[in-house]
Amino acid sequence: MKIYIGSDHAGYLLKEEIVKYLNDKYEVVNCGPFGMDSVDYPDYAVKVCKEVKEDVVGILVCYTGIGMSMAANKFKGVRAALVGKVEDAILTREHNNANVLCLSAKNTPVDLAIEIVEKFLTTEFTYGRHERRVNKINEIDVSR
Asked: Which end of the chain is more exposed for a tag (fewer CB within 10 A), N or C?
């Protein structure tokens, strides 16, 4: 599995800890930033989400995780979930087939973030009744 990861300046330190953890286990592409200078989170959501496809997932970190999840879900085929608990990491993979994990640097300590990431990456989609619902999500294309 290939993993693209990005953050804004507020999520930089947590992102770097996650990258360190993942580097020995997966093919990881760090999309930046590469320091703590102020940056705009949508720019990094774009860098990560344009690469997400089958067998390629994304991880995004910002101060709350909210902005990243909003930006990520603009991409067709991306199902981004803001996760703050291990159980939610499992459920969003099993039920929603989420392919982008969003984390809050403000509310997620490193040890919890690592646990969430690990469950997100190792939990499989359960298909069944959930497949119909995910297909409905994928079909939504609303423009005003």
From this structure: C
pLDDT in tens, 54-89: 899 999 999 999 999 999 999 999 999 999 999 999
User: Cβ contacts of residue 121 below 8 Å, gap of 6+?
Assistant: 1, 3, 26, 57
CA distance 144 to 142: 7
Residue 47 confidence (pLDDT) above 80: yes
What is the gyration radius of the CA atoms in the chain, in angstroms?
14
* Beta-bridge mates of residue 100: 58, 80
Catalytic residue among 95, 96, 115, 121: 95
Provide mean pLDDT across the span 82-111. 98
Pairing between strand 80-82 and 56-62? unpaired
pTM score, whole prediction: 0.96
Query: Domains of the chain (ranges plus CATH)?
Result: 2-139 (3.40.1400.10)
CA dihedral 50, 93, 80, 28 (to 10 degrees): -40
**Known catalytic membership, residue 95:** yes
